[in-house]
Amino acid sequence: MNSVLLPSVAGAFYPQEPETLATMIDELLDEQEPLPQPVPKAIIAPHAGYIYSGPVAASAYRQLLLPNRIHRVVVLAPAHRVPFRGLATTSADWMRTPLGDIPVDRSAVQQALALPQVQEFDGAFAGEHALEVQLPFLQRTLNDFSIVPFIVGQASAEEVSEVLDQLWDGEETLIVISSDLSHFLDYHSARTRDQHTSMAIVELNPEAIDFEDACGRIPVSGLLLSAREHGLQARNLDLRNSGDTAGDKSRVVGYGAYVFN
Questions:
Q1: What is the pLDDT of residue 46?
Q2: Alpha helices in 127-186 (DSSP H)
């Protein structure tokens, strides 16, 4: 019997009503410009509520509307709620959003589970927003695709990179890293710190990213290691914070969008 992983933050981080959600995402995408380059192999996108980080995330997802052959998406997001060692994936066969069900690539999941740092742990997904908020954007930008989902706990960049390399494949596989940047600084301090982090990402330099620079520091760092190995280049598409998108500048969260080709 097939099992479905139900959404945890629909109606909170993004609209629960399907038509409202689809319209919101489409309007965010329509505000962005496509780049004159091939569809990315990997993206980094933020994971706050859509009213805060949605415009920044849309700048990366807009690039997926270019002609592409993507039919599998490997998504890695940091753990916010449950502490654990390594990377967690799900036992579910489908992941649900208000826009429908996405099939989990069970073959790829089994391939990843052969690595010692990967475990099947559905508890890591309970109430976790960082991966879930990426899914509706994928549903509005790609056609038929499956997902290989991971929540990243206490792990090294090398352990994450090993998982990515295991599932890298060709242009049919997209990698999505979910990460916000700095948290709860004043507006100007956040801009300074996020510019430093953004430069480290573009330069593929994970060693320059500290714990407080990005909540998804570990999956981001793993991608940067793999990007160096595979000869990719990174480009920053948008770098803002919640003071730009939601008004309050006294205590902000940073957001960046990046594509890797």
A1: 98
A2: 134-141, 157-166
